[in-house]
Write a structure and sequence with these properties.
The complex is a heterodimer of chains A (415) and B (326). With 415 residues, chain A is mostly helical. Chain A contains ten helices and one strand, in the order βαααααααααα. In chain B, α4 packs across α5 and α5 packs across α6. Classes of the chains: A mainly alpha (415), B mainly alpha (326). β1 of chain A pairs antiparallel with β1 of chain B.
Chain lengths: 415, 326
């Protein structure tokens, strides 16, 4: 069982089987019967189906967000415009265009991270060592808050190079941490499972309970506790803290809320602890997300299985019906042949008795083969497979007839 | 026991190296950016002073006003120009936002303002992120065959050694990726967005495709942008395709590391293949007849079984080794 894909923290949700989801079965290795080496790919249908689902999901999300957010946005806009008009009316000497110019400059500055409120002296730089350290961390983990971003050409180029090297490095680290985390939790859960084994509970129930326990415990440790701490220190609401935790740990990182980004006097060890929490929390979230991915995959597999079962049943039914049909045909043809044979032999006997020669019209158009039909079924199949010509020849050539040339054509005619 | 101790050692080594890397990055960023920040702050202060000097507004009033403006701006609402601005939450913009949410890019140019929006974002992300990752890896697995296995087999058919074929192919793939997903789109973006330079375009492409998404550059946000909806939808498509190619590249690099024994050396997990994927034979024309000879079949059975045991996903060297009749 593998930890998340090591070169990209975000691809952790692909087909790796985290040891933290205890619902996985060991992969059985099948030795291929053919002598060809094969590659495994997902079917086109699966891929297109999932793709269509994602597009639908996006559209649905867009509609919901629009419905939720647009009214608020309009309200905000109205509020700020009123404020501006109030300001202008209160201070008559202020030129409208000058104000616009100032606001534009300030907005640009804001994007550079400079806060223009207040005076020059009491500012904490956004690029002192600890903040720059934090920024580097957000780049490597691909969270990318964006409350600080490089503005010089040199800074940007260095950012690109830095990320190119740092993201895989972080991926390795995440894989390692995820593994260790999994081991720790696995040991704990094994101990819990051992307690349950004394009772008479089924294996799957134990698995489910252990997974739920893991999820809850992890949520408590990595989500609930930090959210409470952030609420207390940063002064956010409960929802905003939870929102920040989820947005950060899924590495989305909007940047509207950043721990350590406000103008509060933080303790010295606050930012490093936040960084450490991000590291371990990311490993936990990668495991959770891959578990959700596994469930989605299991659901899709089950649906596929059911569809496959239905298809298999249909194929079975068709096969049995056609086999029955073939069998009936064969039996009918054999019966007819027998009857005809008997009729012909009776006729011959009558004719010899009455000293008449056999009427030509009663003889068969082609010469027949008197064959030992005891193993006719096997012969039929041998004929179908086309590989038993020598066999046929052994059986049938006592009369010097060649079945290939159509001496069994009586049966073909009946067909 | 030795391997467990070794893995712990490796982990601590990684953590230490990671911390050093972060410190180094912080130092460099600090040295580069801080002077620029000082300069900008000075400029802004002078501007503000000038404004206050020949106006009757008090500093406190202006500060208060500016604070509100900035807060609104952070939510994506601009106070400039009374004229009606296109909403940040019309259908395509919301879809763009949803896309930045599920691909975990997260620009932050527009963020949910309402509590309900925030709550819904949480749920949407928790479900949508693994979903998107699933789609991307499915597509990558599908593309792995024609884009990686095929060309490497062709190269091997031309007589290149397996490892060299892998490396050469990786280089070619890298160049193709660079051209199609960085240089090309960067030029396009710098043309479409008036104020972006070519380097800004490259920077944007890189930051987006690595899903960092700082948000200092976001396309389709210029006031008066024509065909904004179409533009945003095409950016969504570009993000999706680009992310797919990045995953493909990462997968190819991972395989290379596997092949050259790096993952075994660093005791990192190899990638796995889920058992419900279909199996497809590799088309290698010249070698195929050799495979069907009865004398070779046992060896291939054994080789195939061993191949499955050691590395259950595509590994070009292993497969090429299996294809050569011994």
């Amino acid at each position: 069982m593998a930890a998340p894909d090591l070169l990209d923290p975000k691809s952790a949700t692909h087909n790796s089987k985290p040891r933290l989801s205890f619902s996985t079965k060991p992969i059985t290795l099948t030795v291929r019967e053919e002598s060809e080496v094969v590659a495994t790919v997902m079917k086109w249908k699966t891929v297109t189906a999932i793709f269509v689902l994602v597009v639908l999901y996006l559209v649905m999300g867009a509609a919901v967000f629009k419905a939720l957010e647009q009214p608020h946005e309009s309200a905000q806009r109205v509020a700020i415009l009123t404020q501006k008009l109030e300001f202008l009316s209160k201070h008559q000497c202020v030129n409208h265009s000058e104000l616009e110019e100032l606001v534009k400059q300030i907005v640009l500055a804001m994007r550079s991270g400079v806060n223009p409120t207040g005076t020059l002296s009491n500012h904490i730089s956004l690029w002192d060592l600890s903040s720059a350290f934090f920024f580097a961390g957000t780049v490597i983990t691909t969270i990318g808050f964006g409350n600080t971003s490089p503005h010089t050409q040199g800074g940007r180029i260095f950012c690109i190079v830095y990320a190119l090297l740092g993201i895989p490095l972080f991926g390795f680290l995440l894989a390692g941490v995820g593994d260790q985390l999994g081991t720790i939790f696995g040991k704990g859960i094994a101990r819990v499972e051992k307690m349950f084994v004394h009772g008479d509970i089924s294996q799957t129930k134990i698995r489910v309970i252990s997974t739920i326990l893991f999820v809850l415990f992890g949520c408590l440790l990595f989500v609930a506790l930090p959210a409470v701490i952030f609420k207390h220190i940063e002064g956010w609401s409960a929802l905003e803290s939870l929102y920040f935790v989820v947005i950060t740990l899924t590495t989305i990182g909007f940047g509207d809320f950043v721990a350590g980004g406000s103008d509060i006097a933080y303790l010295d060890y606050y930012k490093p602890v936040v960084w450490f929490w991000i590291l371990v929390g990311l490993a936990y979230f990668a495991a959770i997300l891959s578990m959700i991915g596994d469930w989605l995959r299991v659901i899709s597999k089950r649906t596929k299985e059911e569809v496959g079962e239905i298809r298999a049943q249909a194929a079975e039914w068709t096969a049995s019906v056609s086999a029955e049909f073939k069998e009936t045909r064969r039996r009918v043809s054999v019966e007819l042949y027998d009857k005809f044979q008997r009729a012909a032999s009776i006729k011959r006997k009558l004719s010899t008795d009455l000293a008449f020669s056999a009427a030509p019209e009663l003889s068969l158009p082609k010469r027949t083969v008197s064959v030992n039909f005891n193993d006719e079924l096997e012969k039929r199949e041998a004929v179908l497979q086309g590989l038993t010509t020598p066999l046929m020849k052994k059986h049938l050539f006592m009369n010097g007839m060649d079945p290939e040339r159509g001496d069994i054509s009586i049966i073909d005619n009946i067909k | 026991m030795r391997s467990a101790g070794r893995s712990w050692l490796l982990l601590t080594g990684f953590v230490v190296f990671y911390i050093i890397y972060l410190l180094f990055g912080g130092l460099v960023f600090s040295t580069i950016e801080r002077p620029e920040e000082e300069r900008l702050r000075h400029e802004l202060d002078t501007l503000k002073q000038e404004f206050l000097n020949h106006s009757c507004a008090s500093a406190a009033d202006l500060d208060h006003f500016l604070a509100r403006v900035l807060q609104a701006h952070r939510s994506g609402v601009s106070v400039l120009q009374n004229s009606s601005q296109p909403s940040n939450w019309d259908l395509t913009s919301s879809m763009f936002y949803a896309n930045t949410l599920v691909t975990t890019v997260g620009y932050g140019h527009s963020t949910p303002l309402s509590d309900l929006g925030k709550g819904f974002s949480i749920l949407y992300a928790l479900l949508g992120v693994p979903f998107t990752m699933l789609v991307l890896t499915a597509c990558v697995q599908k593309l792995l065959f024609p884009l990686v296995v095929g060309p490497v087999a062709v190269l091997h058919g031309w007589g290149v050694a397996p490892r060299a074929a892998c490396a050469l192919h990786l280089l070619l793939l890298l160049l193709l990726l660079l051209l199609c997903f960085f240089i090309g789109p960067a030029a396009l973006f710098s043309w479409l967005e008036g104020s972006w330079s070519f380097l800004d375009g490259v920077y944007f492409c890189f930051i987006s495709l690595c899903t960092i998404g700082l948000g200092d550059y976001v396309p389709a946000l210029q006031p008066g942008q024509r065909n904004k909806s179409l533009y945003q939808v095409s950016v969504i498509v570009y993000l999706f395709l680009g992310l797919m190619m990045m995953f493909l590249l990462l997968r190819a690099v991972h395989k290379m590391a596997d092949v050259h024994g790096l993952t075994a050396l660093l005791q990192l997990p190899r990638c796995e293949v889920s058992p419900d994927d279909e199996q497809r034979p590799i088309l290698v024309t010249s070698q195929k007849t050799a495979l069907l000879q009865p004398g070779v079949s046992d060896k291939h059975l054994a080789a195939g079984a061993e191949f499955k045991n050691v590395d259950t996903c595509y590994s070009p060297v292993n497969e090429l080794r299996c294809l050569v009749p011994l």
